[in-house]
Amino acid sequence: MEEERLDFNFEISLQRLCVVKIATNLWEKEEIRQKVLLFFQKNYNRYEENDNSIGWNKVTKKVLSFLKNVSLPAKLSHSIKHVTKSIGLQIFNWTKYVTKILKFDIICTSEIFWTHFGTIDKRKIFEHWVQTRKLKSSQLFNMACIFCMEDYIPNLWIEIPDYVKTNEFYSETIYTMSKYNLIAYWKNVLLDDMRRNFISTMAVTERVRIERLRAEGRFENDEFNERRIAWLYIFADSHSTEENMFRVSVLEGLELGVKYFWNKLSDEQRQRNVEFALHTAKGKSEEPEYAEILIFLLTKLSVEQNISLSYEEFFILEMLLKNWPWEEFFTPVFDRILEFYENSTNRDVDNYETKFFYLIQAIVGLMKNDFALYECVEGTRYQNILHETWEKIPESSKILVAGKRDWSIFSKLLNIEDLKSLKMIINHEVFRKTITKRNSFISCMKSLFLTLESKNKIELIEKFVSEIGIDEDEIFKLRANFALSCL
Questions:
Q1: How far apart are CA 169 and CA 399, in angstroms?
Q2: Per-residue b or e along 136-166, where b marks 16 or more CB atoms closer than 10 Å to that residue's CB
């Protein structure tokens, strides 16, 4: 009997197709293309991802401004904004990869192809570039190798001049830089030179070189070199070349390579590499390529294995949340995890109650990011997810939220003016029962209210006091802490 597996297939509806089309059309406006081009030419900084996020938000706000005067039902409007923001993040990652990682001198935002469910179709883009010949044969060959476009690789290699085939890039660089290792693999396939585990051999040499640079104080600690160090330790001579290539594909977020080499692995190799892939994806949950890799791997596991892994590794839920369109699967996976939790006899209760709390915290963090773009979270996708998740988490986790002394969730919700969510949590039965915690919460409002008062947001404080259900005794306590004209 075949094992049941989780279904990660999208339902393609007319509304989804229309929303994706609207969002991609907004990003394809010539004015926006120029702003994207300018951003990567002038503002992108490989060392400061926070600055990049702030700069990209400005570009996204410009795109969203085209929707301001469009009259739409609130639910549809929120959906279009959310998808537009998400499409933009994919464009950001794709442009970063092509221009900054591969260093192709090409305007790659003008001809992007999309799947029906709203992800970049890299295969179609590559095929278009082959037809239009906007890149050199060597560049097309490199992309064919990285995307594992097996049918294109031999002819493109033939087109490359001999003096290029023997240059430093093809004789050394592709073996010593993980982002190019798939090129080394396919070059050796073409030359029938698979007699040794070539990447592992080169990695040993490179490891010695990097240790020497470190000792001399000449090794720069940046994101690129951190990934480079990780690369040096993922290979093993005991692994087949294909297994090493699978691992480097995971490390570099090359989802097409992951899918290709997965089919080359034995059942034993697949089993031991799932754990490696999960570990590697930690901390990269905002990068869509890793989301696609994890989704692909999760579809290869039975439901029992899948939910058990997801239960142990809650970052999978965060990964789904942060990556559209995969967030569509957050609720079904979360529901299965809850079912697993409730039926588990050996669960570490305190540990998982804490994980449910941090899940709530992660959702509120995403709402905060949305507020920076939309200046409102009412009715947004993440507010809806927060409310659904709050209703489902165990009562003990709700008590944990009520008992946290830093009140970070409440302060974020108040700062993004989400009184609806605050009311849902603060007036919940478990919060009402925890009198001492509620008193502590009322006292901690001092700094938050003073901050809002300094921003002339007295009206928000008034709404908070009236809508949250603060009684006369609690208002008296607030007055005792500090003076506000609205209290």
A1: 58
A2: ebbbbbbbbbbbbbeebbeebbeebeeeeee
Token representation of residue 264: 């080359």
pLDDT tens, position by position, 104-149: 777 677 788 998 888 899 999 999 999 988 889 999 999 999 999 9
Query: Which residues is 114 bridged to in the sheet?
Result: 120
In angstroms, the CA 244 to CA 175 distance is: 13
Last residue of a domain, one of 90, 120, 150: 120
Tell me if 324 is assigned to some domain.
no
> How far out from the chain centre does Cα 277 lie?
15
CA distance 373 to 368: 9
State the Cα–Cα distance between residues 93 and 78, nearest whole angstrom: 23
The tens digit of pLDDT for each residue in 349-382 reads: 556 677 888 888 889 999 998 898 888 888 889 9
Query: Smallest Cα–Cα separation from 322: which of 268, 363, 355?
Result: 363
261 lies in some domain: no
Question: Angle 277-260-12 (CA atoms, 0-180°, nearest 5)?
Answer: 85
Instruction: Tell me how many domains the chain contains.
Output: 2
The pLDDT tens digits for 245-280 are: 999 899 888 999 999 999 999 988 888 888 788 777
Chosen domain end from 120, 148, 177: 120
Copy the structure tokens of residue 354: 């804490």
Is residue 104 within 8 Å of residue 41, measured between CB atoms? no
Neighbours of 425 (CB within 10 A): 21
| Structural domain containing residue 94 | 1-120
DSSP bridge pairs for 120: 114
- Residue among 309, 332, 312, 308 at smallest CA distance from 320: 332
33-34-39 Cα angle (round to 5): 100
In a domain, 243, yes or no: no
Residue 73, judged by CB atoms within 10 A of its CB (0-12, 13-18, 19+), counts as: exposed
**Residue ranges of the alpha helices (H) in 233-329?**
241-251, 255-262, 267-281, 288-298, 303-312, 315-322
Establish if 7 belongs to a structural domain: yes
- Whole-model pTM? 0.80
DSSP summary character for residue 195: S
